[in-house]
Design goal:
The structure holds two protein chains of two kinds.
Chain A: H1 3-21, H2 29-38, H3 42-45, H4 62-65, E1 82-86, E2 94-98, H5 101-110, E3 124-128, H6 134-145, E4 150-154, H7 157-165, H8 169-189, E5 194-197, H9 199-208, E6 218-221, H10 228-238, E7 244-251, E8 255-258, E9 272-274, E10 280-286, E11 289-293, E12 299-307, E13 312-325, E14 335-341
Parallel strand pairs in A: 3-4, 3-5, 5-6, 6-7
Antiparallel strand pairs in A: 1-2, 7-8, 9-14, 10-11, 10-12, 12-13, 13-14
Chain B: E1 5-6, E2 8-10, E3 13-15, E4 20-24, E5 31-36, H1 40-47, H2 50-58, H3 62-78, E6 81-83, E7 88-90, H4 92-103, H5 107-122, H6 124-132, H7 139-142, E8 144-147, E9 150-156, E10 161-164, H8 177-181, E11 186-189, H9 196-207, E12 215-217, H10 222-231, E13 234-238, H11 241-246, E14 253-256, E15 261-265, H12 277-285, E16 295-300, H13 304-315, H14 336-350, E17 355-357, E18 368-371, E19 374-377, E20 380-384, E21 400-405, H15 408-414, E22 418-424, H16 428-435, E23 440-445, H17 463-467, E24 468-471
Parallel strand pairs in B: 1-5, 10-11, 10-13, 11-12, 13-14, 15-16, 15-22, 16-21, 20-21, 22-23
Antiparallel strand pairs in B: 2-3, 4-5, 6-7, 8-9, 9-24, 17-20, 18-19
Helix pairs in contact in B: 1-10, 3-5, 3-9, 12-13
Classes of the chains: A alpha/beta, B alpha/beta.
């Protein structure tokens, strides 16, 4: 596929989603009501991804304040849904409804994994936030889809954030040690060849055991930003250059943006992620004028548009900034590189807690 | 000349990070040095292996490490040593220039600090004896022995001495140098603007024959420092009163905080006050007033105004000069904001009618001034009406002192904790009271500037007792 063909594919997807989400038979109450109030019909005016700027930014508060039922497309009416939570430390969390999206996302991701490092039939362990998060089901589905089972060790990031906010760093370490003890016990006792975890937890497991020596060949990682030096440390030292480090960028609202792990070293461990187009698209925007896309090589704020039948979310401003990177042969659309918390250079951000 | 790149040292092994920060020469955009930064998790991983570094030193004879330390001192003072990962040679004069370019210290002060550090290396045997109260150093080789006819044994409390170094005073490296002879490896986090001195000392030790594994150097950000503080078996750091409070019950951590050092004159000697002005001026202004052993409060029973005037007149002769001026005694601020903040704090204190800046009429220009692109604070002597004034007991990173009158009988109740007190008196009864005072760490009796210390008598913590604990033991039979 060429970049032009990828753009055509995305434009087609945008048109399809406008038709789906803004038609009475298939759209959800939230967007249908929105259309009535907006006074314009996206089906007529949004003909491709470039027109998406006609929407204002999706407000994540809507996911907290609106009833979840209002996001159920009429096409799915009466079909019980999953509720997945994202972020939040206090009050009512932000939630997203879903049915099969996570399966599609992770099956698509599975196609990108190298069997040499993520052997088919191999068992997985997930060490990280489970509970009401989409990841809990998604990683297990990924393991099952590839013919294996998945073990889980839970971690509550909201509690960790509170501890950090209160500067109780010794408690953070004790909690982390508690989680690690469970993870290491399972890794030692069971046949596990793949792991999903967060960068910091991976490093923490690596403090306790040699990860590749315990049979783990591949590590799929996500959750927080990583500097190139940190990625190098994880690949070369924690995974001892034997297991493969596969960084991803994603969340409950997007799915998974993938990187090209086999090219990490030649790129000095600077990670570029490509969105799961056409199901979602990422754009690096000028923080001062978010209609404007930044130039290649420039830092800007990450803007996400999700385009699935289950969920439409235009122009959501992530709490991250990244460098706009050029399309790659493997993923012929814009990538986002060296992701870091938005405003990381100007303010202190509680991030990378687990 | 190519900009040097200071790498991370992981038990002596240079490691060039992808996270590189550039430190500019003060007042310019020209890079003085590139520094590899370590991530916190890398440091945590490495700290798990510090027993290997300790084993390297443990395998050596203490007497050999003493000789190595002495040789390292000569090398530090005199040799060209490779600087950074590409190993360009750095002469002692290059070192002075490099440190001046990032720290704001005048060359003369750097040379003074070099000499002081050289003294630490050279006097290592005396220092060891002083810290251990005469212990035969071979006890560290065998693990046990005799001291004063009694059996003794010492076990290490840690596999490493971690030190979070500041940027404002190269002489603080003196605190960790004896650790090598005590067979405890060091793990250093250099100050942002001052990687030069720890690097040069480490290279000197290695050239002198010390195993490179004994030295770990981790330039790192706040989270890396936090990891070191939380994980090190023993850690020294520098900070203000809040840092001291934060760690006061943690035996692993020794915080070198503010000193609140004082010079007091007894009623028996006050009529001779003019004789002591040189001592007071040195106590206030040595090392640009940056040390915790510099006097920040002068307490006298009378003649407060006269003494404040006399000292102010003298310290006003210390003003910002070119860094290479041999008479330069005042340091610029590597972080220009610090000078602004400190000046604001002094000005706030002077808003009280009970506090007067006596130096103002003698110095040229304002207290805060800029020269050659650097911010300076000119020496300041403040006459205060009583200990109740905000500026009566304050310590700042420049030559600053208050002068307060107080009856001799009330001095010990008023002065509060003091790292050093110089008491100019011959009154034996008062001297006894001073010796009995638990809030004075180091006590000088007589005409001794507060900044003159002897390393065999630690003024702030005893390194040997920090690194080792005495254990009781019996040996019935040795196989």
């Amino acid at each position: 596929m060429t970049p032009d063909e990828a753009k055509d594919q995305l434009d087609a997807r945008v048109r399809e989603m406008m038709t789906w989400h803004f038609s009475e038979e298939t759209g959800c109450p939230f967007w249908l009501d929105w259309k009535k109030e907006a006074g314009w019909d996206p089906r007529e005016e949004v003909k491709g991804i470039d027109d998406i700027v006609k929407f204002d930014h999706f407000q994540d508060e809507w996911l907290r304040e609106e009833k979840n039922e209002r996001f159920v497309p009429n096409a799915y009416k009466g079909k019980p849904f999953n509720v997945f939570e994202t972020g939040g430390t206090t009050g009512c969390p932000k939630q997203r409804v879903g049915w099969e999206d996570y399966k599609h996302d992770y099956e698509q991701f599975s196609d990108q994994l190298l069997d040499e490092y993520f052997p088919k039939g191999g068992n997985w362990i997930m060490v990280g936030p489970t509970g009401p998060r989409r990841l809990r089901l998604a990683v297990e589905h990924l393991a099952n889809h590839r013919g294996g089972s998945c073990y889980h060790v839970d971690l509550d990031p909201r509690w960790v954030k509170r501890l950090i906010g209160r500067k109780e760093l010794d408690q953070v370490e004790r909690y982390q040690a508690h989680v690690m003890e469970q993870a290491v016990n399972i890794i030692r006792a069971r046949d596990i060849s793949c792991i999903f975890t967060t960068p910091k937890l991976l490093a923490s497991i690596g403090e306790r055991i040699s990860i590749p020596s315990h049979g783990i060949k591949g590590c799929f990682c996500g959750g927080t930003s990583m500097t190139p030096e940190y990625v190098r440390f994880l690949q070369e030292e924690v995974l001892e250059n034997e297991a493969l480090f596969v960084p991803t960028y994603g969340n409950t609202l997007m799915g998974l943006a993938v990187s090209i792990p086999e090219e990490l070293q030649q790129n000095n461990y600077s990670v570029t992620y490509w969105a799961p187009q056409p199901r979602a698209a990422l754009r690096i925007v000028d923080p001062e004028d978010t209609a404007k896309t930044m130039g290649y090589g420039e830092y800007g704020r990450v803007e996400l548009t999700t385009l699935t039948h289950e969920f439409f979310m235009p122009r959501f401003l992530e709490r991250d900034e990244a460098i706009r990177r050029k399309p790659h042969e493997k993923y012929p659309w814009d990538g986002v590189g060296d992701v870091r918390p938005f405003g990381a250079l100007t303010k202190s951000v509680i991030e990378g807690v687990y | 000349m190519k900009t040097p790149h200071i790498p991370i040292l992981r038990q002596g092994r240079p490691y060039k990070s992808l996270d590189v920060q550039s430190i500019e020469k003060l007042g310019t955009d020209e890079p003085a040095v590139e520094i590899s930064f370590a991530c916190a998790d890398m440091i945590k991983h490495d700290m798990l292996k510090m027993d290997k570094a300790r084993a390297k030193l443990r395998a050596m004879k203490s007497s050999d490490l003493i000789e190595i330390t002495k040789r390292a001192g000569e090398i530090f003072l005199n040799d060209d040593l490779p600087v950074g990962i590409d190993g360009e040679p750095q002469s002692p004069e290059d070192y002075v220039q490099a440190l001046a370019s990032t720290s704001g210290l005048p060359h003369s002060l750097i040379r003074m600090n070099m000499k002081r550090l050289g003294g630490i290396f050279g006097d290592i045997e005396t220092i060891f004896r002083g810290l251990t109260r005469g212990l035969d150093i071979e006890v560290l080789d065998k693990g046990y022995g005799e001291q004063g006819g009694a059996p003794v044994s010492f076990s290490p409390n840690t596999t490493e001495l971690a030190v979070i170094l500041p940027s404002n005073s190269p002489a603080v490296n003196a605190l960790w140098i004896p650790s090598i002879a005590m067979k405890i490896p060091v793990l250093l986090k250099p100050g942002r603007e001052e990687p030069w001195t720890p690097w040069r000392i480490i290279l000197a030790f290695i050239k002198a024959g010390c195993p490179e594994e004994a030295f770990s150097l981790y330039p790192t950000a706040h989270d890396g420092s936090g990891a070191i503080i939380r994980r090190a078996g023993r850690c020294m750091l520098f900070g203000d009163d809040s840092t001291v409070k934060q760690h006061e019950h943690d035996p692993r951590i020794e915080v070198h905080g503010t000193g609140y050092s004082k010079l007091v004159i007894g009623e028996d000697e006050i009529e001779n006050w003019e004789k002591y002005i040189d001592t007071i001026v040195e106590s206030v202004s040595a090392n640009s007033g940056r040390s915790c052993i510099c006097t920040s409060t002068i307490v006298v029973p009378k003649y407060g105004d006269e003494i404040a005037e006399a000292v102010a007149k003298r310290v006003a002769e210390i003003y910002p000069r070119s860094q290479d001026d041999p008479d330069a005694k005042l340091s610029g601020f590597a972080n220009p904001k610090f000078a602004e903040w400190i000046n604001e704090a002094v000005e706030t204190g002077l808003e009280s009618p009970g506090s007067t800046d006596v130096t103002a009429k003698y110095r040229k220009g304002d207290r805060f001034m800029m020269k050659d692109g650097m911010n300076y604070l000119q020496p300041t002597i403040v006459r205060v009406d009583s200990f109740d004034e905000d500026l009566a007991i304050r310590e700042f990173l420049f030559p600053f002192a208050s002068v307060v009158e107080c009856p001799q009988a009330e001095v010990l109740d008023k002065i509060g904790p003091s790292l050093v007190v110089t008491a100019i008196t011959k009154d034996l009864e008062w001297i006894n009271e001073l010796f009995d005072c638990p809030t004075i760490d180091r006590l000088n009796i007589g005409n001794v500037p507060t900044n003159r210390i002897k390393w065999d008598q630690p003024h702030e913590g005893n390194l040997f007792e920090f690194l080792y604990s005495r254990r009781s033991f019996q040996i019935a039979e040795i196989a």
